[in-house]
Each structure stands twice: as C-alpha cells, then as structure tokens.
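Dear colleague,

Thank you for sharing your sequence with our group. We've completed the structure prediction you requested, and as agreed, I am returning the results in plain text so they can be pasted directly into your records. Please verify that the sequence below matches your submission; if there's any discrepancy, let me know and we will rerun it promptly.
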Amino acid sequence: MGWGSCILGREVQPAEAVKRVATRPVGRGLWPWAAPLLLVAASCASYPPLKGRVPEGPGSGPYGGNPPTYREIETHLRSAERLRKDPDRRQEALDEYHWVLEHTRPGTTQHTLAKAGKSLLDKQVGYHYPGTIRRAVWGALAERPREMDRHSGMWKWITVHHSAMEVPARVLSSQPVGQEAVRGIQTSHMNGRGYGDIGYHFLVDPAGRVYEGRSLKWQGAHAKGKNNVGNIGICLLGNFENAPPTRQAQAALHGLVASLRSGFAIGTTHVVGHGHWTSTKCPGRHLTTVLNRYH
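Please find the predicted structure tokens below.
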C-alpha cells in the first residue's frame, strides 16, 4: 500500500514501525528527502481511518455500547428530512429525528440538525391524519382569520357531533357527494352563522372518508363559547337519532380518535358527544352509544 493512502484516510504501517524506518541513517537506496516524508506518514498513520469513523455519541465514551457509524447517522437524518415533507409520514419523521438525537452528542452537527428538524415538526400544529381529504380537494372556501380565535395551550377534549342531515346513499361509492355535503356545512357556518370557517376540525362521511376541516391552529366553533377551548371537533355526516353510523364511518372515527388521543395525550373520558356540553340530541342516540365505548 502506498504512503499516499494515508491522505485518503486508510491506515498504513503502524506509526512506531514507520518511525523506526524514518530514523535510520540515510544510506544507499534511500534519498535524503525520504526521511521527512516518512515522518509525515508516521503522524498520519496514528489517526483512525475516515471510512466508517464514528462521531461521538451514545455509542462511545461514557454512553457505552456499539456506536453507530457516521453513515448510519446520516442515513437516518436524511430519511427524517425526506419524511418531514410528507404530512402523512410525520410520525415516521419524528421517529427518525429521535433516533439521531439518541445516538449523537449535543453540539455535533447531526444532533443540531435533528433538534432543529424535530422542533419544526413540533411547531406544526396543523395535525394531519393519514388519508385525510385536504381542503383544496373538497373545495373549501378561504378561512377568515379575523373571525376565529387562535388555539393555545393543550388539546384536552374531543367532541363528536352529527350533521343531523341525511346523506344520499350514493356517497358510499362517490366521494364528490361527500365533498358536496362538507361544502354545504362550511357555507352554512360561514354565511349563516358568521364563523371564520367550518366549525369542525374533522368530518367523516358514511364511506369512512375523513375530511380536513378547520385547522388545529384555530379554536373550533362547535361546542359553544369557552367550551371550544382545547376542544377538537369531529362531525359525522348523517342523522344518528334513528339509525347508527355505517361500519365504515365508525371504523374511521375510531382510527381518527385513537390517533388524536395518542398525539395529544387525551384521556378516554375526554372523548364525548355534543350533549356533554349543552342540552341537545346531538350526536344522536345511536352515535352516543358508540361513544360510550370509550368510557
């Protein structure tokens, strides 16, 4: 192996051996300038190879264990950056950032980048449930921020409603029917009640489709006054006073509630129907029975 290989980060002869060679008297076959070059090689040989070099982290030093390689850390960091751009994969991105933070020391470049990326995700209060139909898809009107209150603090409640309006049966096979129903509710809330947007944060149609409603950066308008503080509103399309929600709608509701509870640490006793806050038949006796399973 040539002496130049040490410049590329590959190990050469052990340092002590090189020094012995370098300090021999210059004789036949050894040019006068060879000794300085060998001394440079000796100092280079004392360093570990760049390839596979492990940055300081919880695998080395006081942390113990087998340290991850630089390449492994970079792979997880790049994966987190890629996943962060996809709202459906937010949790995966957080998991990747957590991995990097656990395997690097504070102050290192990778640790700093992971901390910054995680901070950005934590600040994105616009929670997105995987598969949710975006506002742009269902044709939402532009929100009116001046007529809404910004959310602050913790989300502590999930309140479930029904629209109290029958939805055509063809909604089961036609998403546009569900979108039309959601647009109708938004128009009623904004033009009829003076709301800054649709009052609910999420809506679910009989086919089990979940629609993005009001952003979680805003307080809802579904439980009256101060009851809306820290209270996520979900509306199931249909009237459930006389008939239960479809199996698809119930499954979608359970999945959404489970995700929200996990993401915001909301207890099961804080998943309630509209009737918890005021005297009303909403969300209908059949849907109320479904919600009782959480308690």
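Summary note from our side: Residues 3-45 form one domain.

Kind regards,
the structure core
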